[in-house]
């Protein structure tokens, strides 16, 4: 259901344009293959509920990597290892975030708590506006708590 509410990037050109066209907002793209993927469905539902809350400073898109494979190699998108990846861009620059998982390039775990997702996006946005290429996930959160499910 959440996927229906989020704008879809249907070609590599659309992905590029989404990243290039925003000068002042954080671009959040959820890459993944929606076929039989319950983790992706959960994350999309959360992202669709978060999107209106952050629309002044962030825009959230989804991209089906089975239909748009252009970035699979470049961003190491592999549905066998990760059912989805949420990536962040600001002014045409990939912004990394240290979640304590060892992979700073993307968010590859389910976060069920909407406020935690807003906090993550806000931390990435604030760091990006200050020129940082990598930010730390909001402090005080244990990434392996019951609220979060690590995807392996």
From TrEMBL:
Sequence segments annotated as region (Disordered): 131-152
Claim: Lipid biosynthesis is one of the keywords in the record: no
Pfam families: DIM1
SUPFAM superfamilies: Thioredoxin-like
Keywords tagged on the record: mRNA processing, mRNA splicing, Nucleus
InterPro entries: Dim1, Thioredoxin-like_sf
Main localization (coarse): nucleus
One GO term (biological process): mRNA splicing, via spliceosome
GO cellular component: spliceosomal complex; U4/U6 x U5 tri-snRNP complex; U5 snRNP
Domain of life: Eukaryota
Bias type Polar residues, positions: 134-152
PANTHER family hit by this protein: THIOREDOXIN-LIKE PROTEIN 4A, THIOREDOXIN-LIKE PROTEN 4A, 4B
Family listed: Belongs to the DIM1 family.
Function: Essential role in pre-mRNA splicing. Also essential for entry into mitosis (G2/M progression) as well as for chromosome segregation during mitosis.
The name this protein goes by in its record: Spliceosomal protein DIB1
Species of provenance: Pochonia chlamydosporia 170
